[in-house]
Amino acid sequence: MKVLVATEKPFAKIAVDGIRKEIEGAGYELALLEKYTDKAQLLEAVKDANAIIIRSDIIDAEVFDAAKELKIVVRAGAGYDNVDLQAATAHGVCVMNTPGQNSNAVAELVFGLLVYAVRHFYNGTAGTELMGKKLGIHAYGNVGRNVARVAKGFGMEVYAYDAFCPKEEIEKDGVKAVDSAKKLYKDCDIVSLHIPATAETKNSINYELLKDMPKGGILVNTARKEVINESELLKLMHEREDLKYITDIMPAANEKFVDFAGRYFSTPKKMGAQTAEANINAGIAAAKQIVGFLKEGCEKFRVNK
Ligand code: 3PG
Fold first, then answer.
1. What are the structural domain ranges in the chain?
2. The CATH homologous superfamily of the domain defined by 2-101+274-296
3. CA 188–ligand 1 middle distance (angstroms)
4. Cβ atoms within 10 Å of 259's Cβ, excluding its own
5. How far apart, in whole angstroms, are the C-alpha atoms of residue 50 and residue 55?
6. Ligand 1 binding pocket includes 275 (Cβ within 6 Å)
7. Distance 124 CA to ligand 1 centre (A)
8. pLDDT tens, residue by residue, 106-155
9. 78 CB near ligand 1 (under 6 Å)
10. Model confidence over 6-51: pLDDT tens digits?
């Protein structure tokens, strides 16, 4: 059995060592395709792979067509919008994610970005503090919960809106549950986005929602760029010179956002989960899930039908 790690953005070496230990310990072969720059390299590498570990790598129908021996793909991370689930099912391939394994890393980055923004990107002028500010968490999943925990350490007032999570579950963490996204954006100085990119959420963070943010409002996006209606956010940022947008997922229209000097920041690559710890947690979880699937047929964390 051959397990391929295909990561355009590679894991830390220590994580790859851990993956190797799991895979070779189970008697399988490990192949690495790291930092590839061309889809053709991926198509070649998947030809004889029985299992693949990926990150945000795009696994579409063409990849499934090329991967004739494939049985399982594990996305080492939370969001699996980069995998064509229908094509996977059509090819009889199981797709899994590793929920929660990299969520602390993403949550910590939210605050790295926030401190940078409220201190005016360290330009030497007096900024503001996070203590006492209202933080709205949009979607209370694994990352949202970690964001709430850290925010309390900063002395922030924490609010959350989640269309699917019961109110009691949010409030047991000492977080105020809000009834609608509209109210969250209206009431909170800062909103941190943690919704997945789905057909329903794509472009959903729009003018209508953002226009009521309080003066000096900050939107932090460590989720997906697709959930932002970029043209409407651009329009609003032109109209309201007080709003800031900070993210680790560069917008498609980055060249238009860079005009907002002092109000916009993006890391060049998605950095939320890029820590040794997150790589180890998610990478090794992915390797273990593959072994469990191939040896015992365990389908826990399967995301396709
Ligand atoms: C996730 O969905 O787990 C995060 O966005 C991390 O993505 P990455 O593995 O590409 O860093």
1. 2-101+274-296, 106-266
2. NAD(P)-binding Rossmann-like Domain (3.40.50.720)
3. 26
4. 11
5. 17
6. no
7. 33
8. 999 999 999 999 999 999 999 999 999 999 999 999 999 999 999 999 99
9. yes
10. 999 999 999 999 999 999 999 999 999 999 999 999 999 999 999 9
